[in-house]
Each structure stands twice: as C-alpha cells, then as structure tokens.
Amino acid sequence: MSRRGWGPADVIAVLGALATGAVGGISLFAPATLLKAVGEGNQAVNAGTQIFANYTGTRNLAAALVLLALVVMRSGRVLAGLLITVALTNFLDAITDLAAQRWPAIPGPIIFSIAFMAAALLLLERADEPQTGSSV
C-alpha cells in the first residue's frame, strides 16, 4: 500500500542515498581521496586497491539508486528493508574500522547506521498504522 506525504524517514533515506552515492563516486573515480578521508592517506593506490575501490563504488552507487527509487515509488516496507541492510553494512564497516584502529573512519558509519535504522523503524511503524479513508 502506498504512503502519503514525505516524512522524516524519507528525508533520511534521500540524504543517506546522496551521501552513499557520493562515497561510491569517490571510490570509483578518486580512491586516493577516499583513503585520505578514512585516515589512510599515506597508502598508495595500487591495482588491488583500485579493483576493490571499483567494487565498493559500484555497490554504493547501486544502493543509492535503489534507495532513491524506493522513496519515489513510496514503497515503505521495501525501503525499510533496504535501509536496515544499509544500516547493517555501515555498522559492520564501523566494526572493521574499530578492529583496524582507523579512528577517523569510525564516526561516519556509526552515524549513518543509526540514521538508517531510525528511518527504517519509522517506516515500519508507519506501515503498521491503520489506513484512514475509503478504499476502492
């Protein structure tokens, strides 16, 4: 069932999608910049790094595009599922950053994980509310 109006969850999803897409683009086209952003600016971008930057970039761009499409399509429950997936991905990124002691890289994934999970919970709460008005 489609939802009406824009809520905080939609705004979080759109902003998160834009940020995820931006990170994806940076990963694809400027991996050295991404390394600097996570506190690893002294590392050289070699062929292996470029391959994994490409994988990361395309996956981030795909997630961003699907997030935006689901917001436009007003698919609340499906959007909530993807938001939970992206929240878990960011949380696991933070865990690996913590394990590797990449301190500058930890806050971003934690913030996005919390925001995406909050948006998902808002959408699921809204999906469980009874619909008002007449059905045709």
Describe the structure concisely.
With 136 residues, this protein is an all-alpha fold. It has helices spanning 8-29, 31-37, 47-73, 76-99, 107-128.
Tell me about this structure.
By secondary structure, the protein is an all-alpha fold. The protein has one domain (8-127). It is built from five helices and no strands. The chain has helices spanning 8-29, 31-37, 47-73, 76-99, 107-128.
Question: What's the structural blueprint in terms of helices and strands?
Answer:
Elements: H1 8-29, H2 31-37, H3 47-73, H4 76-99, H5 107-128
Helical region count? 5
State the shape. elongated
The end-to-end distance, rounded to whole angstroms, is 12 Å
Low-confidence parts, pLDDT < 50 over ≥5 residues?
none
Largest sheet: none
What string, H for helix and E for strand, traces the elements in order?
HHHHH
Rounded to the nearest angstrom, the radius of gyration is 17 Å
Helix-strand makeup class:
mainly alpha
What share of residues is helical? over 70%
Q: What's the pLDDT, averaged over the residues?
A: 91
* Strand proportion: under 5%
- Domains (count): 1
Count of distinct strands: 0
Write down the oligomeric state.
single chain
Entry keywords:
single chain, 136 residues, mainly alpha, 5 helices, 75% helix
